[in-house]
Amino acid sequence: MSALTQEKVITAFNKLGTLLTNPTDILGNAIYSAENANAWFTTENVKKSVLSFAEMLNEADLTVWFKSIGFNQSPKKVGLILAGNIPMVGLHDVLCVVATGNIALIKLSSADDKLIKAVLAELIKIEPAFEAKIEYVERLKDFDAVIATGSNNSSRYFDYYFGKVPNIIRKNRNSIAVLDGSESFEDIQNLGNDIFDYFGLGCRNVSKIYFPKGYDIANFYEGIESFQPIINHFKYNNNYDYNKSIYLVNAAKHYDNGFLLLKEDENLTSPLAVLFYEEYNSLKEVEDQLKAKSENIQCIITKSPLNVNTFGFGQSQHPKLWDYADNVNTIEFLNGLS
Q: Which superkingdom, per the lineage (predicted)?
């Protein structure tokens, strides 16, 4: 088997992107078995995730991305502890590791232990040299660096065990939206994707929204009405019913449209089926808050001219190759290992 080169990586990634545009043809069995194992991984959501990666791996973006990527001729073993909150969420880390010529030691999440394997099996079919770069492990050992994604609690464990090697350790983050009242019906509809894609389980999903003082909540609810069928999913419905009952018992002020609860709260992390909100008097006030809480924010969704990095409505779950989690440049980290 010939050695892997960066040129082969680029060609293979491009072919994989093309292949993934027809997810059912390529990953049919994996898609259906994933839903059987994890009720959150519906066929619709898995296809959405696969197509997001297909969109990401286009020739133009790959060309731009690889300009920043070195290829390690003395490969390092990089341990990857992957999350399983949404389908294939850890695949980008795997692609980053093999793109830099390093070896991925992959600890899959028990919640997502089929889909990434199925996609990487297709990558190896395209370019067999990847087989030497990808290894699945039950426990990390003999690694040179670690990228671990988990909760605020697990991050303390990761710090303790992996603190002596180069590492990226990710904690809980949330995404927020800022409305200024000028949004069209279509803007709010698109925002619905940022809220409801993957049932709102991702760190790129909006869990908190800022409204201008006096904003008519009915405008927001009318714009997201098309997402009403989400309530038919039994696990989402259970969360909605539970949180609604808590607010009713405690006489907590909230809004309710039958599938999403709105509650005024300063926190960024809202329960499933709930969106926290705050009202503001000026965009400068919001901007200052966002900067102060930047360590806990993944994405900011808005059309307002804020002096922070933002995404357009409906774009939070359509990252580019260079939209790195937690704003930590994974490629720069991996390049530094050589």
A: Bacteria
Establish how many alpha carbons lie within 13 A of residue 11's alpha carbon, considering only the half-sphere containing its beta carbon: 12
For residue 189, give every residue at least 6 positions away whose Cβ sits within 8 Å of its Cβ, in sequence order, or none: 223, 224, 226, 314
Which of these, 128, 119, 149, 176, lies nearest to 298 by C-alpha position?
Answer: 176
β-bridge pairing 255-256 and 261-264: antiparallel
* pLDDT, tens only, 276-333: 999 999 999 999 999 999 999 999 999 998 888 899 999 999 999 999 999 899 999 9
Q: Are 39 and 166 members of one domain?
A: yes
- Residue 150 shares a structural domain with residue 22: yes
Name the residue range of residue 123's domain: 6-172
Q: What is the pLDDT of residues 236-286, one digit of tens each?
A: 999 999 999 999 999 999 999 999 999 999 999 999 999 999 999 999 999
Phi, psi of 267 (to 5 degrees): -70, 155
